[in-house]
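Ticket #4471: structure export looks truncated?
Reporter: QA, pipeline team
Priority: medium

Steps to reproduce: submit the single chain below to the structure queue and open the exported record.
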Amino acid sequence: MALPALLLAGCLGDQTAVLPGEAARSGEIAPRISTVQRASDQEHQRLLAAFGGEYRAPQTRAALDDIVQRLAKASEGQIGSYEITILNSPAVNAFALPNGRLYVTRGLLALANDTSEIASVLAHEIGHVTAQHAVQRAEKEAESALVSQVASQVLKDPTQGAAVMAGSKLSLARFSRQQELEADRISVTSLARAGYDPYGASRFLATLGRNTAFRSSGQQSAEDKRLDMLATHPQTPERIAAVTAAARQIAAPGLGEHDAGRWLGAIDGLAYGDDPRDGVVRGRRYVNTSLRIAFTAPDGFSLEAAQDMVIGVSANGAQALRFDSVKLKADQTLESYVAAGWIEGIETTGIEKAEIGGQPSVTAHGKGSDWIFRLAAVQFGDRVYRFILAARGANDPERQMRSIVDSFRVLTPAEAQAAKPLRIRIVSAAAGDTVTSMAERMPEQDRPAELFQLLNGLDRGAALAPGQRYKVVGE
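Actual output as written to the record:
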């Protein structure tokens, strides 16, 4: 909120390979619903594009396949085979398409602590398929579209038309919530039938809630929020209450499989957080191995990697940073580009040629009604990397901009190749280990003690058990 609108407009166990989107594999996946099959195939490609493609993690995939097979045999409704895809995204989400394709992000996989917890997610998504929620949803959306068309073309009354359309959307929202709660109910039953601990659902939902609170109180990009599970599912308190009540009708706590050792072994080495090829924030440093560039923000700044840009804010909110890139036109020089001004309403002055990170560059400054701007443009081939640093009031951010441009550098091919994603590492607690000592193994993480507790489902003040295995984040 502190950013001016101007900046926003304008080894063993490693599981590494990322696959591009691919056509549907041969073989029947079911339940197969012909009326929505084509839409499902299109949605498969859209999901791969939106969530970084498919992430290949053989040991994780094998564990997931086994869980899905057990759940499919125990599920209500038409039984078929299901195919699961791991999405290369740190966002926390899961999906199902009506033809039996299931999707989980690696961000979600990192939060589960035993087989029953991850099984609860997959059972929920299978519940959507067996209950044919996608078909019902499509029918409801068609009905909603028809109501909207009548409102706009027949009623000819803007006020009444708006009221009808608002009512239609509200009805659709209630329907979607009802589907989610029904899938929760199905999932608990399926968990028990498949021999898993039915309370795994409530434990994982509680972790989802804690994850959202953790991300909301720290840095989570707008894109991550949009892709987060709780942006597309009902809030957790209601769901936790419902699945806990359903589990109590089946069995007492502690019954059923909840194999932590097997699941932790399956995700040991799973990539965690952003992919360096898409750009990652490590403290105040930003590294992008695809672009082969890196820079460091000034002291006191926090960085956030958003889609196609990096946003930074000073601790007091008085300064804001934006980094992005554009392509020069064929007949355009770097100097003329900067002189033309890339911030609407801001006159660019003090244009000077420079060399930044060994690359031809131009610096400039400008002034708005409430902000002073420092600008830097670095040319790398036909692409221009742009820094905009804005300071509220009369304080010129020249010194801060100088620290940024001094830190900017082009990575060598070897450096770019050496930049590897962080990973989930499974370690055993030694006698005397505490949350604090485990957090010290994750020095590059924001609020490492809180993150360690979140990843391992630990309450605040919980003691660690010597010999027990826990998740940490490291290279």
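Status: closed, not a bug. The export was complete when the record was re-opened. Leaving a note from the reviewer for reference: The longest helix spans residues 158-193.
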